[in-house]
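// run 5 | inverse folding | seed 20
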């Protein structure tokens, strides 16, 4: 009883979403501990506790972000949305120029890496939700309303694209869906999307051509990587060897195929020893191998239930900004999860998208927790308004005495 009162007092918002967070966290701890064994023996002298302790720390920070942000009124996020988008654009540019890694996705700050695209996803969705809410009366104005929004969307996605094409494509898709939900003209959206796709194809083709012509840099190499991934997915690669990405896809399919319905049991994965990134990009394959189709279905249910609970929150919102904000954040989390799982089972080309709140990774864990916190902040406000207000008793008229 005391524990229940404690949770009711401090953990506000939709209890189903809190349960989803707990469920994903449990999957995360079990899967990461199992899938980092080989990594620990290779780099940490067999200290299997190292990576799970580090991951537990990142998970704790993600959960703390969810808790802190769910206590902040959602109106605050509308106020900082424009400031965040102004900060994100130069941050993405700095990442593109000075980023670390084979693909410059991370900035190194005091020895710690930070993936700026995770902040950009949240900032752009907050900005777009605020602009859509404030321009509902003018949403049909193509030049005055829709084009400026699309310019910001395009700028952010273009800055993300050279290092992380899949994130840029995912973010662009979610933004278009959010504009559609925000009553933007389908005709206008179709026109802008067609123009964007044509320009994107020209850009990728030009970069691929420059690389083939001898212009060899990070950006042109990434363009070749995108083209090769699509070729491999469709089976058009001229040759296959164990060093290319077909090897990853094949090992993931083996993990999923050998898991059966109930799996091999926790810690009994075999393919974790062969997959290059079993703790991040292909963690769903390890989960299915160890927990079977049954475990995979539970995980899918958690993400789909998040989308369902978010739709219920949206329907109860009496203002447009929180409704757009919840819809955009739930879209980005659920779609990213579906992409990760689709890659693991061979339904999509390899993208490098982590499984939200499950895969190992500091920045992703932090901002996924923040997204959950903002959704819960809106839910907290909705539930507060639904609660019956205590009736104030009017003082009875005193009898007149002579």
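// decoded
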């Amino acid at each position: 009883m005391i524990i229940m009162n404690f949770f009711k007092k401090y953990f506000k918002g939709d209890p189903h979403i809190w349960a989803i967070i707990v469920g994903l966290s449990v999957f995360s701890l079990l899967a990461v501990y199992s899938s980092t064994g080989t990594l620990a023996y290779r780099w940490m002298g067999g200290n299997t506790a190292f990576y799970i302790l580090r991951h537990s720390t990142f998970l704790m920070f993600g959960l703390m972000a969810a808790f802190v942000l769910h206590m902040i009124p959602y109106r605050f996020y509308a106020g900082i949305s424009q400031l965040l988008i102004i900060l994100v654009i130069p941050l993405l540019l700095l990442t593109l120029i000075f980023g670390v890694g084979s693909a410059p996705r991370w900035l190194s700050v005091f020895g710690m890496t930070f993936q700026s695209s995770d902040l950009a996803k949240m900032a752009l969705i907050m900005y777009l939700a605020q602009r859509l809410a404030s321009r509902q009366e003018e949403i049909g104005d193509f030049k005055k309303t829709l084009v400026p929004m699309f310019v910001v969307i395009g700028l952010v996605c273009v800055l993300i694209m050279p290092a992380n094409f899949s994130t840029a494509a995912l973010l662009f898709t979610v933004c278009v869906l959010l504009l559609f939900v925000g009553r933007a003209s389908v005709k206008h959206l179709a026109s802008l999307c067609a123009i964007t796709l044509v320009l994107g194809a020209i850009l990728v083709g030009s970069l691929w051509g420059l690389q083939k012509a001898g212009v060899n840099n990070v950006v042109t190499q990434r363009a070749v990587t995108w083209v090769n991934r699509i070729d491999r997915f469709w089976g058009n690669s001229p040759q296959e060897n164990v060093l290319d990405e077909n090897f990853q896809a094949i090992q993931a399919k083996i993990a999923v195929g050998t898991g059966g319905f109930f799996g091999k049991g926790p810690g009994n994965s075999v393919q974790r020893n062969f997959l290059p990134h079993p703790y991040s990009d292909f963690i769903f394959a390890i989960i299915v191998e160890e927990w079977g189709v049954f475990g995979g279905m539970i995980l899918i249910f958690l993400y789909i239930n998040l989308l369902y609970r978010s739709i219920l929150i949206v329907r109860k919102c009496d203002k447009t900004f929180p409704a757009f904000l919840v819809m955009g954040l739930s879209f980005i989390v659920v779609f990213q999860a579906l992409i990760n799982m689709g890659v693991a089972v061979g339904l999509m080309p390899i993208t490098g998208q982590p499984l939200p709140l499950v895969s190992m990774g500091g920045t992703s864990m932090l901002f996924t927790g923040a997204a959950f916190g903002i959704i819960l902040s809106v839910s907290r406000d909705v539930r507060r308004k639904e609660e019956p207000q205590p009736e104030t008793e009017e003082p009875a008229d005193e009898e007149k005495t002579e």
